[in-house]
Task: inverse folding
DNA sequence: AACACGGGGAT
DNA sequence: ATCCCAGTGTT
């Protein structure tokens, strides 16, 4: 892989940021083109943000690109000398900081990505649930104990490659694994069950019509009432209040609606009930949906809402969605 | 601790 | 068409 040809911090940084959530085969052509356009940290740090985003187009998660540009500006102003400085760069979390510090600065930090998490959970035959912070910390510590402090960069890359090629999720190739004799899961025969992941929520099915309507320049959601109810088929606001619990069980939009008739028009206010934490740009009175519950992708909703706002003469936009989960 | 971010690949 | 993937920032 092209990023293994150098230990230069900038070159490794670009590769590691691109590789976040993104497959190696996808990254390779972007990596080459990006470096041709931004060959060093100063060039990237001084480039206009839109140029960077254009070069990033197709990779997704664009905050990575924005943060990478800011990080490049920082390292070109001052070359990091240790883990803590790397970790403070925007877009560089615990995993990326450990990878960079070990590869570029030869510092003994274990880089624990999803691959390493899987390898470690199997070596220790640890049934801890992987998304819990306590378990994650335990796996971090174990990876740190296994780390070869003399060659931390090589060790980290070897662990990740082991997870990517041999200690794979579905059918690990224990027969060709170089460390199978140290693997507790292999001894117990549990390698296919590990790592333990959070259980999925109970299956839900819902079929209902959803409709976006504009009221006084705000976008709201109404739904077709269920077939078994009286007034079946009429459009209604989701009932209120809808607790998170109720919403989970009924697959209703988890929002609290209030409405009243004022001067022949109805006013609606919507308060989100789910998620418990709400992004700052979603304020009371704005229309909110959670795709985990409704099955509608947030991006789809956003595009629809924007389309309505851009065409104020459009009073109603309807669409039939079959929701399932 | 929960949520969003964005594509591509697998099913 | 839907599910799955698995680092970081934010709340």
Result:
């Amino acid at each position: 892989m092209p990023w293994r040809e150098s230990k230069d911090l900038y070159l490794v940084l670009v590769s590691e940021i691109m590789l976040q959530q993104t497959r190696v085969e996808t990254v390779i052509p972007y990596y080459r083109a990006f470096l041709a356009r931004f060959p060093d940290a100063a060039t990237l740090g001084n480039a206009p943000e839109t140029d960077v985003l254009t070069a990033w187009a197709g990779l997704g998660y664009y905050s990575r690109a924005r943060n990478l540009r800011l990080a490049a500006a920082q390292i070109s102003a001052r070359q990091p000398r240790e883990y803590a400085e790397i970790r403070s760069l925007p877009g560089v979390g615990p995993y990326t900081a450990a990878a960079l510090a070990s590869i570029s600065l030869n510092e003994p930090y274990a880089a624990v990505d999803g691959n390493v998490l899987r390898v470690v959970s199997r070596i220790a035959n640890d049934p801890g649930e992987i998304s819990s912070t306590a378990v994650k910390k335990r796996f971090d510590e174990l990876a740190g104990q296994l780390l070869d402090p003399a060659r931390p960069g090589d060790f980290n890359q070897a662990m990740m490659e082991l997870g990517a090629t041999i200690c794979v999720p579905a059918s690990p190739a224990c027969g060709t694994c170089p460390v199978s004799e140290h693997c507790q899961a292999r001894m117990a025969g549990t390698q296919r069950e590990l790592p333990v992941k959070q259980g999925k929520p109970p299956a839900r099915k819902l079929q209902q019509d959803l409709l976006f309507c504009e009221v006084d320049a705000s976008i709201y959601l109404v739904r077709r009432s269920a077939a078994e109810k009286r007034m079946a088929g009429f459009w209604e606001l989701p009932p209120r209040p809808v607790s998170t619990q109720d919403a989970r069980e009924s697959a209703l939009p988890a929002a609290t609606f209030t409405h009243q008739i004022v001067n022949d028009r109805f006013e609606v206010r919507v308060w989100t009930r789910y998620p418990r934490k709400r992004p700052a740009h979603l304020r009371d009175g704005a229309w909110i949906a959670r795709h985990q519950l409704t099955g509608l992708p947030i991006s789809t909703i956003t595009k629809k809402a924007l389309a309505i706002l851009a065409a104020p003469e459009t009073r109603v936009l309807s669409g039939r969605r079959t929701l399932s989960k």
Observations:
- The first helix of chain A runs from residue 9 to 19.
- Residues 110-199 of chain A form a domain with the Endonuclease Iii, domain 2 fold (CATH 1.10.1670.10).
